[in-house]
Amino acid sequence: MATIDIDPVATAGLVTREVRSGSRDGTPTRIAVARRSYPTDQSDLWSALTDAARIPRWFLPISGDLEPGGRYQLEGNAGGTIERCEAPALLGVTWEYGEMVSWLEVTLHPDGDRTVLELVHEAPVDPEMWQQFGPGAVGVGWDLALMGLGVHLDTGAPIDPEAGAGYAVTPEGTELVRHAAHGWAEAAIADGDDATAAREAANRAVAFYTTVPEDAPEA
User: Is there a contact between 35 and 115 (Cβ–Cβ < 8 Å)?
Assistant: First the structure.
């Protein structure tokens, strides 16, 4: 099992973040875009993203009919429909969590001996949720996932599930979350959000991700 031994500030800095305003079927949306380059080829990165045996090594166990038109389910998290799967470059799925439905698209671009991953997550605007947490509500989660993917690719080993699940509440994980959340806030400000409100929302996103649940077992 791989441990998470990284520089949290440097790792947060590997992600380029962008926020866009959009719409689907007349409904306003906000779009979170994350880009990160990985030191591996396109086929290896595609395998890490789409191989059901490999996905749990850095993310979560997955089940379902993992073919275009099929449905997938991530253990304890989102599920949805696989809308596009064009190996080794494009994966598009719905991202369904409870009654909330959004859309996720991941594209891979070769860059010399590296591969650039671009993740685009589009969701209908929930004004209260956006005011409370801003894009960090989803963006920080993707930062943590992209971090886990990087550790797996660097080591070739699966991440210890317990270490992965608890990373955000460690001192190093909290530092990564803080830098990621404020990076997302600056991206939202660039898209037109009020600067003070966006940065306050980032602080609340940090607290959300780094607070140990009251019912968590003692170490």
Answer: no
- Supply the Cα-derived Rg of the chain in whole angstroms: 17
Gap between the Cα atoms of 130 and 67, Å rounded: 33
Two structure tokens written together for 25: 């079927």
* Residues 6 or more apart in contact with residue 177 via CB below 8 angstroms: 140, 143, 144, 168, 205, 206, 209, 210
165 domain-assigned: yes
The Cα 108–Cα 99 span in angstroms is: 29
Q: Which of 48, 19, 22 is nearest to 35 (CA)?
A: 19
Tell me how far the alpha carbon of residue 34 is from its chain's centroid. 8
Domain holding 76, by residue range, is: 8-209
The answer to whether residue 217 sits within a structural domain is no
Alpha-carbon separation of residue 112 from 13, 40, 150, 153, 179 (angstroms): 21, 10, 18, 17, 28
Summarised one tens digit per residue, pLDDT across range 73-107 is 999 999 999 999 999 999 999 999 999 999 999 99
pTM exceeds cut of 0.90:
yes
Number of compact structural domains in the chain: 1
Q: Which two tokens stand for residue 91?
A: 């994966």
**What CA dihedral angle connects 180, 186, 190 and 191, to 10 degrees?**
60
> How far apart, in Å, are the Cα atoms of 144 and each of 66, 78, 88?
23, 16, 23
**CATH number for the domain harbouring residue 38:** 3.30.530.20
